């Protein structure tokens, strides 16, 4: 009995050991197979590639640029006065001629009434002087007639006196009448001249009164301070109750519907920086938004110190995104184009002076050091390190290492 129990135990132990060994083999075999499959799949990074190609590249030169308003007007008071109303703020968009502030006009209105009264009086005096001058002219005509009658009577009487037909008394009487008629005519002429001078004086008074009245009316209009041009207000410097002197600057209005990018150009660059040349503006190299511009003006003479020419590029800014005083970058195409190998900008890795790309070499990412040239929008010129036709990886570049296995994903 004891011998039978011992054999059964040995059999159980043996079966158990065989089962354990078999299970281990199965488990280890399955694990090794799964690990091999997982290793093959996990280590391959999915990437997209593009073939490096030689394209025609438009050469361009970059310039640092500062933005300024295409037009700027100064808000100022043409007359002195106390501010009673202000209706503008910095950053507000206004139209040319729009009312911005109001000065007290009480004194001016009173002066206008006084000037109008003076003008009315001067006009009345002119009418009186003109009437007197007219009467003087009538009197001259009358005295001229009297003189002519007296002259005829004198010559007739003298002839008769010489013949002895009339007395000396009659002759002397006609002579006296002639002299009196001559005196009356001279008096009438003197009176007429005085009336004419009075008329001219009154006309001068009217002209002065009218000028004074026009000046006052213009001053009344100038009590309303208006925008000199359309644009955005900046530099506000005015408060209610403030007394302004003529010419006091109260702020500025900047027209930025078109904005100028100002660059400094060397004489050697004037061969392609010409009036009408097209340009591109960006706030920074990282900024994706680009603005079209055109060269509108170039200074006729270089700065005597820096020896550069100031050039202004006009940019359409109807949306108002660009602001004066901001810096950016202008690119202007040169007259020469060239052939160059171009790849997507996002394929580029590394830092300045140490750039590289990954080339797909039969499923292996090969790190390739490169020299870059011009960067244009979303592409970059490769001067060395890449051959025409190389398969360049342009996705997952930041996670790749030299020698990593890759698989090309379908586009």
From TrEMBL:
Residues 74-248 form the Multidrug resistance protein MdtA-like barrel-sandwich hybrid domain. Pfam families: Beta-barrel_RND_2, BSH_RND, YknX_C. Residues 191-210 are annotated as: Disordered. Residues 1-22 form the signal peptide. Residues 262-334 form the CusB-like beta-barrel domain. The keyword Signal applies. InterPro entries: Beta-barrel_RND_2, MdtA-like_BSH, RND_pump_MFP, YknX-like_C. Residues 341-408 form the YknX-like C-terminal permuted SH3-like domain. It comes from the Bacteria. Residues 191-202 have a biased composition (Low complexity). Keywords: Signal. Belongs to the membrane fusion protein (MFP) (TC 8.A.1) family. This is Efflux RND transporter periplasmic adaptor subunit. It comes from Clostridium tanneri.
